[in-house]
């Protein structure tokens, strides 16, 4: 097999670099600012490698930027400690409310934002209640729609919580909370109505799928 010439190798490196820069952030944008923006919209912990790919910068540089953000949010740079923190969970990074403020946020959600749940939220909550613990991807597969915003709503209402993070896939699995039991007026999930009697057994045939 013929070996690559220096010119060919240089061209390949240039192509990779160009591709990285095309997918990354402009040179004038600080990595810390770009990462902070990403963390504000993601729902799952993000790996350092994935973040490096997103911003088009070396992993080492991204690690340093994450450390800078952690210190900034913690108030270690002379500024105030934020009400949220950047936490490493399940091999990835994500912004969380600080644990000492959980009750404040929960009370706000329950008393200041008491709007009713949408039909989509109710359907997603039902899926979690009957299939828990379950990942966001599995929920989306069952409902055949994107459920990111709905899951955020249910988390904010305190009706579901993060049960655990899969060590291999990094997917967060969700389960319902005691608050749901209170809202439903039941003691345990065993008191939820059985869904099997509500399902069509096929005795009268099924409608054609079109």
Q: What is the average of the pLDDT values?
A: 82
Question: Hey, roughly how much beta strand do the residues contain?
Answer: 5-15%
Main β-sheet, spatial strand arrangement: 3-5-4
Class by SSE composition = alpha+beta
What radius of gyration results from the CA coordinates?
A: 23 Å
Show unreliable segments: 205-210
Helix content: 40-55%
Major sheet characteristics: 3 strands, antiparallel
Distance between the termini: 54 Å
User: What is the general shape?
Assistant: globular
Order of helices and strands: HHHHEEHHEHHEEH
Helix segment count? 9
Number of strands: 5
Could you walk me through the main structural features you see in this protein, from its secondary elements to its overall organization?
The protein has helices at residues 6-23, 31-39, 48-55, 59-73, 102-112, 119-131, 136-143, 148-157, 178-184, and strands spanning 84-89, 92-97, 134-135, 160-165, 172-176. By secondary structure, it is an alpha+beta fold.
């Amino acid at each position: 097999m013929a070996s690559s010439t220096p010119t060919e190798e240089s061209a390949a490196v240039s192509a990779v670099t160009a591709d990285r820069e095309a997918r990354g952030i402009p040179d004038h944008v600080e990595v810390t600012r770009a990462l902070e923006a990403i963390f504000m919209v993601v729902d799952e912990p993000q790996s350092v490698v994935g973040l490096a790919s997103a911003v088009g910068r070396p992993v080492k540089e991204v690690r340093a930027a994450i450390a800078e953000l952690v210190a900034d949010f913690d108030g270690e740079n002379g500024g105030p400690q934020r009400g949220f923190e950047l936490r490493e969970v399940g091999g990835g990074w994500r912004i969380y409310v600080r644990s000492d403020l959980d009750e404040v946020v929960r009370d706000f959600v329950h008393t200041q934002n008491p709007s009713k749940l949408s039909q989509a939220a109710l359907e997603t909550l039902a899926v979690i209640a009957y299939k828990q613990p379950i990942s966001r991807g599995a929920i989306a597969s069952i409902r055949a729609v994107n459920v990111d915003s709905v899951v955020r709503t249910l988390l904010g209402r305190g009706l579901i919580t993060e049960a655990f993070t899969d060590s291999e896939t990094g997917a967060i699995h969700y389960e319902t909370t005691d608050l749901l039991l209170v809202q439903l007026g039941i003691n345990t999930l065993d008191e939820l109505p059985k869904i099997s009697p509500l399902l069509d057994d096929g005795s009268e045939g099924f409608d054609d799928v079109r």
